[in-house]
Please model this.
Amino acid sequence: MPPSPPPILALTQGDPAGIGPEILLRLLEDRPSPQRWRPLLIAERAALEALRQVVPEAPWDRLHFVEAGAVGSLAFDPQRVTVLDPVGRSRSVQFGQPTAADASGALAALTLGMELCRTGRANALVTAPINKEIIARHVDAGFRGHTDYLAQDAGLECYGRDYLMAFLAPNLKVALLSTHLPLRQALDEVRRDKIIAALRCLHQHLPPGGGRIAVAGLNPHAGELGLLGHEDDAEIRPAVAEAQRLGIDAHGPESADALFARALKGEFDWVLALYHDQGLIAVKTASFGSATNWTLGLPYLRTSVDHGTAYGIAGRGVAEVGPLRAVVATTLDLLGAA
Model:
């Protein structure tokens, strides 16, 4: 039986004015043997060319630029790196100074990456960081981030909860009940039915045999039996009990002030955090730069780095590729290609 072809990872540029284009180029500097995986860059030629003097070590002679309209006839040459330009026009990119054109380029790259994965031309989508606010201001007023945009495109119900934002760190795995919402709105999402749906979604993605899932408490000390709030007893505890009846190894509500330390020690395999910062503060404190953002529930694999656009250092040649390298390694693990 012939060996399976190496997986194709579609890597999007993120915000062209940020560090996305630079870390993509740096990833190519020390990419493992082409037999292990194939990069398919989705980036504006204008953004990459602006970095020729900044990243001279990149394999410029191996970059093969292709217009987005030629996606249907893509052919991979192991000696070259295919770059799909989602915009296909010359322009000036000012690193650290995002414009409407950068917002359009970022969303165009993401949209093209989604198409490649939907149609099976790529095995996974790896996204560089974007600027949510500038995309919402200039391109799509309803845009709130990669996760919800990808889920909406896939026809998944927002906060149903049939998809989840999750983070894989070396010793900590965290899923979020809600994504990028104002805190007051996120607290309104802490409802029994939504927690049950999130636990079912998370359970479906656990390896055979399942895993121990701890649900974080909302109030200090998980409400202290009603002394410090009633949501933990009224919404979270019944949701956990119902999940247990469904065969899910769920626990909680667990006091959030100690829960993440307990998970780091191996007491739980996953933590379901109830809002963005409750989970992300723990992940980024424990392992900033080495965690992988994984969107659970999509019909294809999508991962991303755990940092932002870093406008302050963009275009200066000092962007660190380590986080993206870690994401690629995790992506290959998830694909079973490591």
In short: The mean pLDDT is 92. The radius of gyration is 21 Å.
